[in-house]
Amino acid sequence: MPEVYLLIDVDGVLIPFPDSEGNGPATHVRHSVVPTGYDAGSPVPIWLNPTHGSMLAELISELPLTPVWCTSWRGDASPLIGAKLGLEPFPHVELARQDITTSHPNGYLWKRDDVSAWLGTAQAAWIDDDFTAADHAWAAGRTAAGIPTLLVQPDPRVGLLPAHLETIRSWMAELVGMPSGPS
Question: Measured between alpha carbons, how far is residue 111 from residues 24, 62, 93, 132 in Å?
């Protein structure tokens, strides 16, 4: 079977957007991190759900997926996010740094051009909270062309849920002819 990538976003997926008072969901634990280029005296607060690490590790161990960070956190994703979740380091898609004022400068997610070039003809399940109808049409077009592509879109205020990973399991079951559902 050809390689199948699991592209994982961070903000809005593993780090839900805070509520109006600046807090994350009750299921998440607050951490402070210092991304590359930031002042160590001004750490960035993030909220992570401690169960996400084991959920993702289980998915990756049971399915023939290659995990890759696909986030503006870039190379910081593994040491600052993944490590706090107990995940092994993953490579990341090198996303161009763009001077944009919207995450959809061309009507679709700003990452998509870089992701499309990076994937080439590889199959992928991509978890991101910020897809547009144009992104879903892009994925449908790739799938119709024989390059299965699944977009999974969590609510950015809630983040990743077990149901999202079940969607990926079902999709992979169809892709490789495996039985789906819990064993």
Answer: 25, 28, 9, 12
Among 72, 66, 65, which Cα is nearest to 94's? 72
Of 61, 72, 102, which Cα lies nearest the Cα of 12?
72
Residue type, 67: P
Is residue 94 within 8 Å of 100, Cβ to Cβ?
no
CA–CA gap between residue 34 and residue 40 (Å, rounded): 6
In order of start, what are the domains of the chain with their CATH numbers?
A: 4-17+49-176 (3.40.50)
| pLDDT the model gives residue 24 | 83
Q: Note the pLDDT tens digit of each residue in 100-125.
A: 766 777 777 889 999 999 999 999 99
Mean pLDDT for 37-58 is: 95
* pLDDT attached to residue 1: 66
The Cα-based distances of 168 to 65, 80, 108, 124, 152 in angstroms read 10, 25, 22, 10, 8
